[in-house]
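Objective 1.3, modelling of assemblies. Example input:
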Amino acid sequence: MRRLPPAIITAIVFVAGFAICAMQFPHMASTRVVANLLTDNAFLGIVATGMTFVIVSGGIDLSVGSVIGFATVFVALAIERAGIPPWLAFVAILAISAAFGAAMGGVIHVFDLPPFIVTLAGMFLARGASFLLSTESIPITAPVYSAVSDFALPLPGGGRLTAIALIMVAVVAAGALLLRFTRFGANVYALGGSRVTTELMGIPVGSMTVRIYVLSSVLSGLAGIVFSFYTAAGYSLSAVGVELDTIAAVVIGGTLLTGGQGSVIGTFLGVLIQGLIQTYITFDGTLSSWWTKIVTGILLFAFIALQQAMIAIARRSAVSKRGAKP
Amino acid sequence: MMFRLPRRRVAQVIALVVILLLDRAVSPQFFDLRLQDGRFFGSLIDVLNRGAPVALLSLGMVLVIATRGIDLSVGAVMAIAGAIAASLADSHGLPLVLTAALGAGLVCGLWNGILVAVFGIQPIIATLILMVAGRGIAQLITEGRIVTFASPDLVWLGDGSLFGLPVPVAIVAGMLILTGAVVRGSALGLLIEATGGNARASELAGIGTRAMILAVYSWCGLCAALAGVIAAADIMGADANNSGLWLELDAILAVVIGGTSLFGGRFSLLLAVTGALIIQAMNTGILLSGYPPELNLLLKAVVVLAVLLLQSPRLAGLFGFAARLRGAKA
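Predicted structure (tokens):
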């Protein structure tokens, strides 16, 4: 668990990809582009950090995109229509997200249901709730928003490290520390390794499950706030399909989808690789945006094939058994 | 498990009837049927017609889920098949258009099947690849545009009529009978259930589980492609971005409502299609009632939760539930 070969492969892919891009377009190798990479994918990085915990624990959370959408609408309505101070709106949405995650985790554990279908219901619920709040795009004009979008750390070379990029980097760093160096993180790995064993070890599986989904939902809520900073608006259709991008980023980052292995840093690199593909397409100008999906799909396949190969090699030394195991 | 199935079957039919009666309460002429130009018209026919794509998807999906799998890529396969059909429709005859579109669906399904059966990748992940990449491929085919066509043959598939029914409904009925005959008329259905129940035991008992898995994913791809062609014919165009978007979730929901467990094993084709009709009857009801259509998602969420809780192995009794709740909090 201390070694992270898949994440290193992701890092090599990212560096190699960036080098190829920079060779073709020398302007890409600037702090400006790198800083934009962080800003444009800030919300994705935050959600993906939470998703890493869920997937390492052997679960999956399909509701993240809808929670982001709900958060943007909620924040926009609270600030613009209800006149609630922004900080209070932020606290409220984080609390609502936490309750939502707790409910999903609770249902998954208490009724012993597959996380896939429970979070699918959560996805419908959150998206439906945001539609009910408002179907329009609500612009946010609060002073905090312009202050946040104006704030940036200047980098040498003309790049600007924006506030939302800083939030993302902080969340990723905190997530990496939490997963690697705390008891909570160790328990997450244990859960993904084997649920039964974890229970026998005396770890409270129920409360762990609830806490993991709370973490994922709270980070989705935070990503929603960041998304509303990014677009300065709340819209119920925002972040549709983000759950797929997030899962793809986590897998490309070398996290095992069966759980038990993975790292937040790998996920971060997975997010950057997706951003890099988009940036390349923007720079090229002749390629259309749908290539992003195809290249992401190919990368996804490559990394899953790699994982399978590694598992197969690990098992070869053990019993050699034949048979499909779907 | 065995003794619960008849009761379950009743539950779905009751649910459908109740929803239809609610629709009737909302819109008094809901059950009216009239025959015009040799075709039936009315809200009930409309429910069947609109529900046809999801019903087709659920026919393929139910077999996949019975093997303890899942296919997330059906929406993307719909988009691919629709894109192929729409781009070929005006320059080629219907047989070639259908062969190309359905062939593409079969290839997509086979790809999923190979990933699951041969490489042993988890079904959710294996089909996620095509779900992500498939829409991109569809856009590659349509070159990012919405391709429209005017070929009367293909349009007929969307809004013609056959035996007094809209063509999509007739196709669903035909596919249901065909699938049912193949699966239940032979031991195939039993073998599929065995594969889902315990793949390793089935393998040891001499069942070709790999062949079963390849077959069900291919069939699922074929059904999805057919749904994609119908959806394209219905709007006389292919929209690679939106065709079949999120329909994979509706199809899974239909199968789950139809009482097939996500853990594989027993399945029922008829109930899966009933599940699809229940979803469509809810959609239509909300539209007729004048409530905002956004309410639909909330309603779906409630239905998913209710069905899940009914299926939950842990929901033995209220006491057990209360004890577990306390246990979870501790």
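Chain A has one domain: 5-316.
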